[in-house]
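Following the same procedure, the fold was encoded as tokens, giving this record:
***
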Amino acid sequence: MEKTVTESADGEGPRLNRRLNWVDLALVLGGVGVIYVVLAFGTLWLMKLWPHERILMYLNAFMTQLSFALLIWILKKVRHWQWSDMGWRGVPLRTILSKVLGLYAMTWVINICYALALFYYGFTPPETDVYSELLGNVTWLTLILNLLLAGVLAPIVEETLFRGVIFGSLQAYLGKWTAAAVSAAIFSSLHFQAYGFFPRFVLGIVLVYLYDKYKSLYPSVALHALNNIAATVIAAGLLVE
């Protein structure tokens, strides 16, 4: 891990900046890949023994986020990082609220335009999509599980990993916006949803913008959580009807 000392933007004196080198970054991305492969094969194996597909899908989703959290914790311990090195730095709510809400509205406009374009050209989402499976047959229990997974766990863990670690490392080598595009592409690709790649890529770019602007993960976590909670509640309402 490389270390540099720079003058902090708030005038509080020098601050140690940490970043991963290419070996570290390759190991992190390799770890993400291993997590997906192991959990995918493990889930398929369990389906043969215990044919409760929906329960196993929830188990897979929660285990994915917890495995990401473990990967982040191992990185922190091995490299002797502080949470602030990964972007967990405080920022006043009043300074970010309007920006978060404005960017959230912008992403929804883009999502609606994209959905209309898909509809115009005759594209429809696949009926067997994993997200529709998790959101189907809505009950209070599944709604709570979806909100916990999508609205709490995913924003905290994924922002730390994709913005705090991956983007925060790549920008030292590729420059800000190239790193933003690469990290957003990785973020969107790992959702394994082809028709949703573009809106998630745009969301990834917006989340990087917030992280870079405020030098903190709190704004990007807030937008990520708001986006996921709203999408979960809207989808649940539509499926109930």
In short: Residues 2-240 form one domain. The chain has eight helices and two strands. The mean pLDDT is 84.
